[in-house]
Specification:
- The protein has helices at 7-19, 24-27, 54-89, 96-122, 133-147, 150-173, 179-209, 212-233, 236-241, 246-255, 257-276, 287-293.
- It is 70% helix and 0% strand.
- The chain is an all-alpha fold.
- The protein has a single domain (7-244), classed as Orthogonal Bundle (Ribonucleotide Reductase, subunit A).
- The structure holds fe (ii) ion (2 copies).
Length: 308
C-alpha cells in the first residue's frame, strides 16, 4: 500500500511517463559507425596496465558495450517479472504504484527493443561463463529467490539501475563516444531517472513492512549480490574474446581502482536511501555494505575519489 506522502509523487511520475512516450524505432534511428565506439580511457582495463593493440581496443570497446547491453536486457526482464508478480498479488490494483509500475514495464520493453537492435549491430563474440553451467544455474535460482522478496528485489533493482546508469553517463558525456551510442544512452538515462526515483520511494516502505528475515536479507545478502551483479556485467568472456586470459584479466579489472571506484560511486546512493529510511543507523552499517560502498561505519567514504 502506498503511503499518503509517496502517493502524489508516484502519480507525478505516472503523469510524466504518460506525457513522454518515446518509441525508439521512430525516435532513435541510425546505427553505429565503423570506428572504436568508446574511448580508451572508458575501457574497464584502462588502469590495469595492459598493452593492447588498436584492434584489441576497438574490439574490447564493442564487447564491453555489448556485455552491458545484453545484461541490461536480461535485467529489465527480471524487473518486469518482479513487477508482474507484485501486481498479480497486490491487494488494491488502484494503488498509484501499480499504474506507475505498468508505465515502467512499458518503458523497459521499449528499452529492451532498442538494446536488441544495438546488440545486433555490435555482433559480440564473447560468451559469459557466469551465465553457463553450475554458476548459471545458481544465478538463475538466486534471481527466482530475489523476485519473490520485495525489499531485496527493490534493493537489487536500484543497483541494477544505478550501475549501468553511471556507466552510460560516463559514456554519453565523453566527446569520442559513437553518436548513435550517445543517443541510446541519453534516451535510456532520461527514463531511468524516473525508475530510480520510483525504486527509491518504494524501498523504505517495503523495508518497513517486511518481516525480519527479509530485512536480514537486505542487510547481509544484498551487498554480496550487488557485487556479483557488477562482476557479471563486466564478465571474463569479454576479455577472452579479444585474446586476453579471461578469468585473470577479469580478476584484475574488478580489483582495479577504476572499477572499485565505479562500484563505490554507484552503490553509495543505495546505502544513503537505506540509511535515510532507517534501515541502517549511522555507526551500525553492516560490514558487507561498508565494503561494497567503501564507507566507514557511519557511512562516510573511506577511499579517496579517483582523479577526474
Ligand atoms: Fe531500462
Ligand atoms: Fe529501468
Amino acid at each position: 500500500m502506498t503511503s499518503t506522502t509517496t502517493a502524489p509523487r508516484i502519480e507525478r511520475l505516472s503523469a510524466l511517463s504518460a506525457r513522454r512516450v518515446v518509441d525508439p524505432d521512430v525516435d532513435i534511428p541510425g546505427r553505429l559507425g565503423d570506428g572504436q565506439i568508446v574511448a580508451d580511457e572508458l575501457l574497464s582495463t584502462h588502469d590495469v596496465g595492459l598493452d593492447l593493440t588498436a584492434d584489441q581496443r576497438r574490439r574490447l570497446a564493442a564487447e564491453e558495450i555489448a556485455a552491458v547491453t545484453e545484461e541490461g536486457i536480461r535485467f529489465e526482464m527480471v524487473l518486469t517479472a518482479g513487477f508482474s508478480r507484485e501486481i498479480q498479488r497486490a491487494e488494491k490494483l488502484t494503488d498509484p504504484w501499480v499504474t506507475y509500475a505498468l508505465h515502467e514495464m512499458g518503458e523497459e520493453t521499449r528499452h529492451s527493443r532498442l538494446f536488441v537492435r544495438l546488440l545486433d549491430q555490435l555482433q559480440p563474440t564473447a560468451v559469459n561463463p557466469l551465465n553457463q553451467g553450475v554458476i548459471g544455474v545458481i544465478g538463475r535460482r538466486v534471481l527466482d529467490f530475489v523476485v519473490k522478496r520485495p525489499p531485496l528485489f527493490y534493493t537489487l533493482v536500484l543497483a541494477g539501475e544505478e550501475i549501468p546508469d553511471l556507466l552510460q553517463k560516463r559514456t554519453s558525456e565523453h566527446p569520442d563516444t559513437d553518436p548513435f551510442l550517445v543517443a541510446v544512452n541519453r534516451y535510456h538515462r532520461q527514463e531511468e531517472a524516473r525508475h530510480l526515483s520510483f525504486a527509491r520511494m518504494r524501498l523504505p516502505e517495503l523495508y518497513e513492512a517486511a518481516p525480519r528475515r527479509q530485512r536480514f536479507q537486505v542487510r547481509y545478502l544484498a551487498p554480496l549480490l550487488i557485487k556479483s551483479q557488477l562482476e557479471g556485467l563486466l564478465h571474463p568472456g569479454i576479455y577472452k574474446a579479444v585474446g586476453l586470459p579471461g578469468w585473470r584479466t577479469w580478476l584484475r579489472v574488478h580489483r582495479s581502482p577504476k572499477i572499485v571506484q565505479l562500484r563505490h560511486e554507484a552503490t553509495r546512493p543505495i546505502l544513503r536511501e537505506l540509511m535515510s529510511s532507517g534501515a541502517f543507523r549511522a555507526g551500525r552499517i553492516p560490514r558487507g555494505w561498508r565494503r561494497l560502498c567503501g564507507v566507514d561505519g557511519t557511512g562516510q567514504p573511506v577511499t579517496a575519489p579517483a582523479p577526474a
